[in-house]
Write a structure and sequence with these properties.
This protein is of the alpha+beta class. Helices cover about 20% and strands about 15% of the residues. The longest helix has 28 residues. The chain is globular and about 50 Å long.
Length: about 270
Amino acid sequence: MRSRVTSVLVPVTAVLATLLLAMKSTSTGATRMSTARRAQPPASACPIEMELVGGRFCIDRYEASTLEIKEDGTTIPHSPFLPVTGIRVKAISKKSVYPQAYISRNEALAACKESSKRLCTDGEWVTACKGPSATTYPYGNDRKQGWCVDTNRLAPLGRLFQGRGRYQYEPMNDPRLNQMAGTLAQTGSFGRCTNSFHVYDMVGNVHEWTSDPKGTFRGGYYLDTRINGEGCNYRTVAHPATYHDYSTGFRCCADPQAGGGRDSRAEP
């Protein structure tokens, strides 16, 4: 007795419909995965406390403060109101702290190197200050009172000292100067003193040393952002690289590194 084999015929249209559904599902899943990959922000080439400018260099988001490095390699905070002469310090860039003043160009360079960074060139500094539109001030071409730390600030030397002797080394490096109300401001506290590079306080607050070995600082400080040039064009070359006083500060730059850090537009 032969067994009967029953054939089941599936309509061709049903097979095609099933295949099309499977292809659509696979395609949609692949598209979603591809879109998800594209949506992820690219990794920044800069450390988290820095901004990438024009894809060419990294710059500290805020003016530098410092940590003292002890003999065993540990670090402790260093007062921004005291010189760093004779001690080993490293530069850090943080929001809502008083930046380091009383520092020379050579000392600032050493502090940047301790953080695997360097001082900015004059060209880098000016580019970051002016922003993508190359304006006179970080926020535009016209000076706006109170947008940076350069408006109606207290002149501390005149409060503490009299006569021309106040412009000598000792008075100009007195730690009380920048501790008086209405003088130095904390980093990032003037939120409009920036541009779309998201770098703050490049005009006013403290002068910022650049890498010029002969000694150049830029941007002015809380009492003057106009005498030696307007805003980002402010430039002083009157002092050697070993000079420092209550107005001299800095920030660091670095070369981009592929695959490091995070999105440079993020706040810490």
